[in-house]
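Budget justification note: compute hours in this period were largely spent on complex prediction jobs such as the one shown. Inputs:
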Amino acid sequence: MAATFQVLGAATGLFFSGSFDPQRLHLPSIRSVSERRTGFLVVRSDGHIVSSWNFPARRTQQFITSSIATKANEAASATTSKPGHELLLFEALREGLEEEMERDPCVCVMGEDVGHYGGSYKVTKGLAEKYGDLRVLDTPIAENSFTGMGIGAAMTGLRPVVEGMNMGFLLLAFNQISNNCGMLHYTSGGQFKIPIVIRGPGGVGRQLGAEHSQRLESYFQSIPGIQMVACSTPYNAKGLMKAAIRSENPVILFEHVLLYNLKERIPDEEYVLSLEEAEMVRPGEHVTILTYSRMRYHVMQAAKTLVNKGYDPEVIDIRSLKPFDLYTIGSSVKKTHRVLIVEECMRTGGIGASLTAAITENFHDHLDAPIMCLSSQDVPTPYAGTLENWTVVQPAQIVTAVEQLCQ
Amino acid sequence: MALSRLSSSSASRCVDLLINPLAAAAAAIPRRLISSDTTPITVETSVPFSVHNCDGPSRSVETTPKELVSFFKDMATMRRMEIAADSLYKAKLIRGFCHLYDGQEAVAVGMEAAITKKDCIITAYRDHCTFLGRGGTLLECFSELMGRKAGCSKGKGGSMHFYKKDSGFYGGHGIVGAQIPLGCGLAFAQKYSKDENVTFALYGDGAANQGQLFEALNIACLWDLPAILVCENNHYGMGTAEWRAAKSPAYYKRGDYAPGLKVDGMDALAVKQACKFAKEHALKNGPIILEMDTYRYHGHSMSDPGSTYRTRDEISGVRQERDPIERIRKLVLSLDLATEKELKDMEKEIRKEVDDAIAKAKESPMPDPSELFTNVYAKGFGTEVYGADRKEVRSVLP
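Corresponding output:
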């Protein structure tokens, strides 16, 4: 969702729950917000009213570019670097993958239709022509064995990137991912490293049906030895892809079907993000909202409403699903004392459940209210559009939750 | 003849020669105690190879006296190690699962003779002897079985997770059949780096019914990988006989488009010949399936007596007629490469070696508590990890 805050609260067409169209999302440049620098009043939880002419000035500057972190801002203001280039999220993934394949001849891609077809979401388009059949491999429909083969190749030092056409198909490879990918480094006493990247789109799409709308982060999160990251913007998609490939540990990179066409301006220079860091999307004072992947955009949409209602939410895109960036999260909790988790996983045993446990255990003393966790309903995703909208968390629910939390 | 008074070794050898007329003929030729010749000998395999979609190798195997004696020594060491592991398990020093390989030693030894340490071997959980064949030491073996620090996986793997990266032994896998795609991945990496080596992916007759085998074989044949799939057919998948589990127990034919070869797995020389043939084939024409017709004397694991689904007569019958060590012993004796006594002395020495290794392994300490958290991730990120009680055993993930 647009990371800009139209501080005047002008309604845009994006408010309607559930029908937001990622195709129409464009992150505006800095100038459009600086025109509208009117302030707003913030009511703190202790009742103290603060006139906010001071910090919004800084804050608008910050949160405009927040989804691009601080780099693009610096890039724009620095005279030495170029302004960057615009691209869609799947192109960013491809750029990251291509740069890594160029840099290291051990990187190869395996998956269904990644080669000649160009990838079912075009992430690997053009790579087979450039790198040949041995580095971009079309596999038959045999997830269990080609994931196993990727792991076997990784044991010798190759760095395969295994693509699941849809994350849900990787359930067929669960044995390989859990037992071999996650555990081999440990059971061999450190002899083998498994520098594999397993990636693919998951999440609830647009009426794709139950089996194609799965969120596997909840199933994989207990596997010891793997790292999980979820990308949400073109900037972090490219950075996380590069970091995942360079990592010595097995990394599962969760993409989202509906986010592939997000457009953003990313730097021209090479950059790699940290796999274990969370991203501060919008700093705030009242409540910490933790989210990842597509729900980030629902949260930002809700944040618009919340800001108009006078709340100041701090939005953090946790990005690293395993392990959690408890440092960033903890600093935020210590500041705001209230936590709302918004996720697309199921309620039972999801990322939110683990995160709730982790925060309660570590930061219990800093919480003024119980942690609220908004997750998808514990149902198979229905086909009907209206029902599908009701399975995932909608911005209106987020607004209500924050209001409830901040009472 | 007061021969019993004579005590010098040369004198006792004279006694042997006198008593044993066959060896008298050879007595005229001065020879060393145990032959370490490298002059080639040709031996015929006792059972012909069955082939599927290929011309198998010839039945005449080239070997040398040195190799035959080393076969005997290696197989006797493996046998002794497995029997010792049996007693250790019953003494509760080895816990959990312990799958013993005695009876099947010829497969491990024959394969080693045909390949180099740059070729990769990956197998399932019956991996103690394969590990030894790849260059593992008895100390590493016993320490790992007993969960000690000196083990090959630092005590964290156990019986089913022996690995030796520097000599191309990729384990050691507990889940039936899961090692086959891994093995094809190793072959893929070998093809990728163009180093003219092959991978042997071993599995059992039980695993031969796993879908992932056929998936991996399909991909390996499509991409022309130097993978050799070896079915160690000991005729029982735990308690289920092969005819009850497989509609077609001709495992070497199951590859359909991939050529197959059935080998007498109790004959180390036949195994060597087949593996050599398979290596050449895989490097030129792609994957091939080998079926080793072998037998295990113990049950599936230590918790299985091994006699509920097969008769004791069957087990002792195989032991009498097809035992791999006895076969090599007879061959060595008939070719007069060593005397009976020398072989017995060798076995005594092996027994002592094994006992020493066990004693040393028992002295090795258990891993430190901090080892619980090491090697979960490679190159850490500084996250602190607490033990279950949140107070003790803290460490930073490495």
